[in-house]
Amino acid sequence: xxxxxxxxxxxxxxxxxxxxxxxxxxxxxxxxxxxxxxxxxxxxxxxxxxxxxxxxxxxxxxxxxxxxxxxxx
Length: 73
Known about the structure:
With 73 residues, the protein is mainly alpha-helical.
């Protein structure tokens, strides 16, 4: 990959994370009891993946999946 493609890919990954975090924040905000729940689940999930020896890329994917775990709720 060229440097330009790599730079654009990283930019798209950051944008995707921001979109997911905004969506998650919206879901969590509707109930004060669950506020921050998805972010905590994502942080814990990433830490567990790290301690289990998953690659950095896999940890990031697990983090994103955990952020989205309540979207269908």
